[in-house]
Design goal:
single chain, 5-stranded parallel sheet, globular, 7 helices, 5 strands, alpha/beta
Length: 147
């Protein structure tokens, strides 16, 4: 799948991998980040992505925890190269419909809400390493840059 000139939501794992030089996925994630910076595609993130990324980067069990200051610098660097989208007045209903249709429970709720936020912002592609949790949604396409 090609993402050139498409609107693409970057999943939190892309942000995290591109922040961690110790990750085996760093190089590819960093290239994707550079492609976004160079406007090769239109990159988007959500408040949820920001919260999830900040949580992981500063968690004491993270492979190399960031200080809050350094984690916030990473977040700022993402904000500079993406558009930050928010849920809108339709997002809750789309989310509830997805939850019902796909029988979403437990931790899947967060991914479904992310999908609903993308859909209600007219974004139909998500870049993620977590294909299994997103490929069930016929409403979006999944792009895995690591494959």
């Amino acid at each position: 799948m090609k993402i050139h000139n498409k609107k693409v939501l970057l999943d939190s794992n892309i942000l995290i991998f591109s922040s961690n030089i110790l990750s085996t996925k760093y190089k590819i994630a960093k290239q994707l980040r550079e492609s976004a910076k160079n406007n090769e595609f239109r990159a988007y993130i959500t408040h949820q992505n920001i919260n999830e990324t900040l949580r992981v980067l500063t968690h004491k069990n993270y492979v190399s925890p960031f200080t809050l200051t350094n984690a916030l610098k990473q977040i700022d660097s993402f904000i500079k190269i993406t558009a930050v989208i928010s849920p809108n007045s339709d997002t809750l209903q789309v989310f509830l419909n997805l939850a019902k249709e796909y029988k979403i429970t437990s931790n899947q709720i967060y991914d479904a809400y992310l999908v609903a936020t993308a859909i209600t912002n007219d974004i139909r592609t998500i870049a993620t390493d977590n294909e299994k949790d997103f490929k069930k949604y016929k409403e979006i396409k999944v792009y895995n840059p690591f494959k």
